[in-house]
Amino acid sequence: MSTFLPPIPVVDLFAGPGGLGEGFSSLNDGKAFEIQVSAERDPVAHQTLKLRAFYRLLKSHRPEFIQDYYQFCNGDAENPFTENTIDLWEKAEKEALCLEIGSEAGNQELDHAIAKAFENKSESQPWVLIGGPPCQAYSIAGRSRNKGNAEYKPEKDKRHFLYKEYLRIIQKNRPDIFVMENVKGMLSSKINGDFIFHQILRDLASPNVALDMPDDGLRYKIVSLVSDEVFQDGDDPKLLDAKKFIIQAEEYGIPQARHRVILLGIRSDRIRAELPELPKLSKSDRVTVKQIIGNMPVLRSKLSKQQDSYDDWISSVSDQLMDLSLLAPMGPEHIRPLAKRLSTAAECLKAENTGALRLKKKSEEDVGEIDGLEKWYSDPKLKVWLNHETRGHRIDDLARYGFAACFAEEHGRSPKGHTDFCLPRLAPDHKNWESGQFSDRFRVQLADTPSTTITSHISKDGHYFIHYDPTQCRSLTVREAARLQTFPDNYFFHGGRTQQYHQVGNAVPPLLAHKIAEIVFKILKIKDDDQLGLSLWSNDA
């Protein structure tokens, strides 16, 4: 008997820019897992996905031409490929598909791609399905918006049931393991009074039954990556502690308080009747915002709604912060200490650069002294900072950003609504500002803690993502957000800046995915039949 040889094939559905796939494909420098098919609906995110697929193909199949990719990233070439590598670019186009999962045409193309990828795979060779169906229907914010629509019917919102497209691939192709990610709002979302999460668990545990197909015995055990919680066919989901399926990313070395439901499904015919303890994510020291972005180039914001130049920025922002420093001593007791911080910030506004899609590095700039992360982020072949460009802000908002950053330095927290934004001209023109409904309208990403969750909302404005340094007086750039999401620095995001933000906010942190991939690989590579009760997969009888 000979055990299978890596890399293990992976299919990535609802892939976005490829965060989950990046984690799996990077394990053991690409020798553990290999993405065969990835699918994403958004055409701009798909461009990012395809480019990363091409990068992986270069690394694994033609490393002598890897410079093609870097010439593009560094701005020395219009295209990421040359005549020496265009065939790999075409292969990347076949791997990374732009299609709508759930549509008739999209499903046909996806099924064909998976069948093509696996046409020479033996029945015994394991493979893994990963992905996260869209979360808008489950998220707290999305449900809040839907409440305002009198005609909205949850049971008619097809987004609630996109997981069944994921389920269809499971039923049709029988992966050995699947990893499914979604927002924690999934746990509380209901349809017709029943928790959608309970239905999802039942369906994933028994895909054929869920899809009204003949029951051939296909079953999955759904396990938590951070607890001993297990669900299998026949269990009552009401008896589960659903919260034990939530992964709090900041507890596992991710510089971000991102709390997501991640389900690990294991085919029951690959596991004995008893389920001994499986590998789990290991907790690690928290990583802070400053550790991850503190060494990056100092930038100023741009000015919107008025002429923008360094002199205009210096003059406008300095005047705003100095005015606030003079008003602070007349404010409440907790505001008075800000006077010195505001005046100091006003006098130290020296950032001239607003960044760029490709911002040339001035020297060797890396992540800093963080155990294990220098190698994860940094790439010496990269001569630029990618996607590191500030957005424009109104001058009155910049005053609030500077105030908020100074407040955070003084008190170790972000200021709250009208109780803290209490100086003259500091409160925004919101009709209900005094009601407290906007208490978190402006949020600083504190230097000495993990960031708050990087969400797609960062594409709309920067108010929730204020840089901790008051002398920069701005919101986070795409690259800073990408670093907090743990994307490597050589990960290039296509599209306009708003589209780049959206991709980053919707992604799974690649480093967290990498840690999950380690667990999946351990499960699939068990050689001792009794160690975890797992059976062996062999390439021959």
Write a structural description:
With 541 residues, the chain is α/β, with parallel strands linked by helices. It has 2 domains: 8-287 and 509-524, Rossmann fold (3-Layer(aba) Sandwich); 289-506, no CATH class. The protein is 33% helix and 12% strand. Strands 1, 2, 3, 4, 5, 8, 9, 10 and 11 form a 9-stranded mixed beta sheet that branches. A two-stranded antiparallel ribbon has the order 6-7. A two-stranded parallel sheet has the order 12-15.
| CATH architecture term of the largest domain | 3-Layer(aba) Sandwich
Question: What's the CATH topology label of the largest domain?
Answer: Rossmann fold
Distance between the termini: 6 Å
Strand proportion, as a percent range, falls in 5-15%
Mean pLDDT: 89
Low-pLDDT windows of residues: 137-146, 527-541
Helix-strand makeup class: alpha/beta
Largest pleated sheet: 9 strands, mixed
The total beta strand count reads 15
Overall shape = globular
**Integer count of domains:** 2
In CATH terms, the superfamily of the largest domain is: Vaccinia Virus protein VP39
Q: Which range best describes the helical content: under 10%, 10-25%, 25-40%, 40-55%, 55-70% or over 70%?
A: 25-40%
